[in-house]
Amino acid sequence: QPVTDPTRIGLTKEALKQAFVDNLFYIQGRFRDVATANDIYMAAAFTVRDRLLARWLKSAQHFKESGARTLCYLSAEYLLGPHLINNLINLGILETAREAGEELGLDLGEILATEEEPGLGNGGLGRLAACFMDSLATGQIPAIGYGIRYEFGIFDQAIENGWQVEKSDTWLKNGNPWEIPRPKITFPVRYFGHTEPYQDEQGRLRIRWIPGLVVEGVAHDTPILGYGVANANLLRLWKAQATESFDFQAFSTGDYYRAVQAKIEAETISKVLYPNDEPAVGKELRLKQQYFFVSCSIQDMVRLHLATVGPLDTFADKFVAQLNDTHPALAVAELMRILLDEHGLAWEPAWDITHRTFAFTNHTLLPEALETWPIELFERLLPRLLEIIYEINRRFLDEVRVRYLADEARIARLSLIAEGETRRVRMAHLAAVGSFAINGVAALHTDLLKTTVMRDFHELWPDRFHNVTNGVSPRRFIVVSNRRLARLLTSVCGNEDWMRDLTALRRLESLAEDQGFHEDWRRVKLAAKDQLARWLAAKTGVRIDPQTLFDVQAKRIHEYKRQHLNLLHIVGLYQRIKQDAQFRPPPRTFLFGGKAAPSYAMAKLIIKLINAVAEVVNGDPQVNGHIRVVFVPDFNVTTGQLLYPAADLSEQISLAGKEASGTGNMKFAMNGALTIGTLDGANIEIRDAVGPENFFLFGLTEAEVRQRQADGYRPSDIYHGDPELATIIDLIDSGLFAHGDKTLFRPLTENLLRHDPFMVLADFRAYVSCQTLIDEVFQDSARWTRMSILNVARIGHFSSDRAIREYGERIWKVEPVPIQV
Ligand code: 26V
User: Fold this and answer.
1) How would you class 496 by CB atoms within 10 Å of its CB: exposed for 0-12, middle for 13-18, buried for 19 or more?
2) Is ligand 1 within 6 A of the CB of residue 370?
3) What is the pLDDT of residues 365-397, one digit of tens each?
């Protein structure tokens, strides 16, 4: 029984040291004196991985034997962030490991910094999936996360001459110690070709799909350990490879080069992560990716069910599958295909199983984000799935027809197929029809879902709709990110229970007025600001002053998120500080972070403008002691971990109705930042939770936005009615920030004046007034500190542990299954 070897499983300092030394020698094949930083990281990672394995295998075995109901999370993205630190914390051996390192002459901080984070996601949606995996394991819910093992995750961002430049993410280049490839867990995935009817042995009519291309998915497994428990769940990511049989076919005709070509084509499928925040144009490779991971995952679930439970009629009792947005919506048709074509079920029982299996989360209302696929592409790539979708649609529309007495307009609106010049498959409709539950990610978002994009579905099936407001992991976003705050919270609470019940932080409320505690609180914040300042200086050479107010906007760059509203405020301040010697608000450092989708020209221009304003402001001795502007390159989980703890002010300034939830808003507030925000997404609920007096609110409400749009919004009227705003926009147009080039930022200013789709100008005045109030409050440091403490004390609801509990109880009907060590 290798699971009793103390070098493999022991949690003492001596065991860790011995294991590290062994691993460096036997796995990395190195003597200590020639070991590289990566060798040392790998030896440390394997030391920790060994300690996960017993828990992981035990969990798997116990779940299997007990027949526990299992949640399968289907997501095209997992933005995991570094594993090592998280696993050390969840095993409860962070300090022991630090000491073990010290005795070996190694700095744990350096080892941790060596890890390349798996950036297998774009932003909020992918990070949510990672937080959910953390909370599922911590909540002891048996779960499998299914996704794609992208060889290249989200690009690394460099800034050159103020512009974003994309560099390929090579996270696998030094090896990935956390994954275990499972070369025997593979499934064929079919593409192209045609279908044909045939009679089976019982004389029933069945359909056979003769593919034009078969690709194989290979499982790559990563254990996800819960915090303070022995439960470890499975993250199973699929890598695409060419099938052997396919190679042989080509080889036998002597066409070696064609065989190699086919291999490359197959492996392309899991090569690279697509931006999810570009208008959903019909990219064949993207549809290939979606079907690839969905097909492997559903085949795997069916295999597991047959191997453990048996008959397929109990499939939906054993499994529930959550569709993380529409990217995995093909799962509905794929499960039908497997039940019908491979297992010979009739339509009705197959549909009953399918429909009881899936639940669907919507993550955005933006119309341009709704995925639809041209029928022509769909039919060519996935002929059998299209037939099944047509049949789902035929039966569904029959139901609608009877229910609404042949209301043709409604039928057209509900159809899975959008008619028009090019007919398209509506993935959200497929997901909705195939699911027993549909949920939005914040209260406002769910309400809007019911009244806008999913209105007809809500009228049809009101009971299927739920709200589950997002949450984030307190392990990742406090314990890992902000050690000092974690220590302070533990000392206040008397134990570490808050790490898995974040509402325990309510205890802080009694200290909100305590002067001594205020000092501790401010010391923690200052230390985080100092750490960020030192990192930034080392990384970019930019110096920032930790004594200034750190005002941070870190998130994907998008017009709807309105980084340019923030910029208008900054340019306004710059202008006033220069012209009015009396005007001296408290010194501020404006920090921006975020990536722009590579093809999103306006977002890239916004990055350029941030850097251009930074160059002028920071280079101007008249103002640079008062305001400073910094673009922090390559915002990702790792750099986020530096930014969240250091923020005094969190910018959550999207146009009301556009940000489905937001999760950065929660991460900042959890770290004691105060929020300036609109009534959008989860901001609304955060404000209710922390108290409106502890939240800086501004801007139009969603209802007002609709009213203004209906009345005919004319941004130029606002420009002409607000001289300060006009000066700011004219200044941007003047070439001041572009070495005299008056045209560089025209696309941006022109768009604001002519269209302003996200009503930046309409909210400008309210935003600036709110910022002025913030300047006032910040000068009253006792008041600010009190507000900051109360934010943290009352943020408990926004833990992903709570979100997972709600999914578990209301939607998945899953129960915790504790594992003993
Ligand atoms: C897609 C597109 C495509 C067209 C251009 C504009 C645009 C903007 C955003 C997206 C992303 C869609 C999916 C997504 O990432 N949603 C995010 O999900 C988070 C987790 O629920 C949530 O907190 C964010 O508010 C939401 O934007």
Assistant:
1) middle
2) no
3) 998 889 999 999 999 999 999 999 999 999 999
Q: Mean pLDDT over all residues of the chain? A: 96
pLDDT at 282: 63
Long-range CB contacts (within 8 A, 24+) of 401-405: 403/460
> If 0-12 CB within 10 Å is exposed, 13-18 middle and 19+ buried, where does residue 188 land?
middle
Q: Judge if the beta carbon of residue 662 lies within 6 A of ligand 1.
A: yes
CATH assignment of 67-81+117-469+806-812, given 3.40.50.2000, 3.20.20.70, 3.40.630.30, 3.90.800.10? Answer: 3.40.50.2000
Give distance in angstroms: CA of 157 to centre of ligand 1. Answer: 20
Q: Is 472 in the pocket of ligand 1 (CB under 6 A)?
A: no
Decide: 89 and 140 in contact? Cβ < 8 Å: no
Are the C-beta atoms of residues 73 and 298 closer than 8 Å to each other?
Answer: no
Q: Which residues contact 353 (CB under 8 A, 6 or more apart)?
A: 312, 313, 315, 316, 335, 339, 345
Which residue in the block uniquely carries the two structure tokens 């749009």? 709
Can you read off the two tokens belonging to residue 71? Answer: 């949640």
Active-site entry in 327, 384, 529, 555? 555
Cα separation, 417 vs 433, whole angstroms:
12
Query: Is 470's C-beta closer than 6 angstroms to any atom of ligand 1?
Result: yes
Res 253: pLDDT: 65
pLDDT confidence of 411, banded at 50, 70, 90? Answer: very high
ipTM metric: 0.97
Q: What is the pLDDT of residues 764-779, one digit of tens each?
A: 999 999 999 999 999 9
Does the fold of domain 481-798 match that of domain 67-81+117-469+806-812? yes
The secondary structure of residue 647, as a DSSP letter, is -
DSSP string computed for 138-201? HTT--EEEEEE--SB-SPEEEEETTEEEEE---TTTT--TT-EEEEEEEEEEEESSEEEEEE-T
**Per-residue pLDDT, 256:** 80
Smallest CA separation from ligand 1 atom 18, residue: 125
Calculate mean pLDDT across residues 136-162.
98
Global pTM exceeds 0.90: yes
Top mutation candidate among 326, 364, 806 for ligand 1, by most atoms within 8 Å of CB: 364
Please confirm, yes or no, whether 658 is among the known catalytic residues: no
In the chain, domain spans = 67-81+117-469+806-812, 481-798
Please tell me the class of the 481-798 domain. Answer: alpha beta
Tokens linked to 216? 């194989």
Structure tokens at 630: 């910094």
Token pair recorded at residue 579: 């012209």
Alpha helices in 309-442 (DSSP H): 315-318, 330-337, 347-357, 375-381, 383-403, 408-414, 427-433
Share of the chain above pLDDT 90, in %: 93
Which of 793, 529, 511 has its CA nearest to residue 670?
Answer: 793
The tokens describing 230, both together, are 């022995």
User: β-pairing, 588-593 with 696-697?
Assistant: unpaired
Gap between the terminal Cα atoms of the chain? 15
How far is Cα 48 from Cα 54, in angstroms, rounded to an integer?
Answer: 11
CA angle 450, 452, 453 (to 5 degrees): 90
Phi and psi at 88, nearest 5°, equal: -60, -45
The one catalytic residue among 458, 667, 687, 797:
667
Q: Is the CB of 124 under 6 A from ligand 1?
A: yes
What pLDDT digit, counting tens, does each position of 275-289 carry? 877 776 668 999 999
> pLDDT tens digits, residue range 788-817?
999 999 999 999 999 999 999 999 999 999
Given a cut of 70, is residue 225 above it in pLDDT?
yes
Say if residue 250's pLDDT is above 90.
no
Q: Which 3 state secondary structure label does DSSP give 236?
A: strand
